[in-house]
Write a structure and sequence with these properties.
- Helices cover 74% and strands 0% of the residues.
- The chain is flat, with a radius of gyration of 31 Å.
């Protein structure tokens, strides 16, 4: 099989390189295909106005994705990003229109709202994680702890009943007789 792969790589030359690039970069390849198809189908697709419109609409999502990247890389997960963004946008819109706050101050208020929500989320998840880890530590250090669970596991793996449970009645035994 390795010789077939080597032959196909050397025989096709440029075709195998294009194939490898397309397979390795699936999402980027799909994006390029979509841009080419849409520009051929519509004359308005590659205009400056349309590209600016797409950029403005994608900016909020890109900023949120950039922030979530750090959360995911640090082995955490935060599902409240969209909710916090919506709350901050609501605070911004309400304070700038209904409350009559200047726009610059409304933006600062919205940012402070997002920071406060992030602080509350971080503090609550840290508290929950410390409780969970201390509970694990206590369970692993209990006097019966892992010994009793290993006995239970050994009993469940054993095909025959142990410790004289064969003499128990069928109703009282967890092991049913096959008679």
């Amino acid at each position: 099989m390795a010789t077939e792969t080597a032959r196909s790589d050397t025989g096709a030359g440029g075709v195998s390189v294009i194939r490898r690039v397309l397979l390795d970069n699936g999402a980027l390849s799909a994006l390029v295909v979509l841009v080419v198809a849409m520009s051929l189908l519509s004359g308005d697709f590659l205009t400056t106005q349309n590209l600016l419109n797409v950029g403005v609409q994608a900016a909020v999502t890109a900023i949120l994705a950039f922030g979530v990247t750090f959360v995911i890389v640090s082995a955490g997960i935060d599902l409240s990003v969209g909710s916090v963004a919506a709350l901050s946008a609501t605070v911004l819109a309400w304070s700038a229109t209904s409350a009559g706050v200047p726009v610059v101050l409304a933006v600062v208020l919205a940012i402070l709202t997002g920071i406060a929500c992030g602080f509350v989320n971080g503090a609550s998840s840290r508290t929950a994680n410390s409780r969970r880890s201390s509970r694990r530590w206590r369970c692993s250090r209990s006097p019966e702890g892992s010994r009793s669970s290993s006995r239970r596991a050994a009993r469940s793996r054993s095909p025959t009943p142990s410790r004289g449970s064969a003499t128990r009645s069928a109703a009282g035994s967890p092991y049913r007789s096959s008679s």
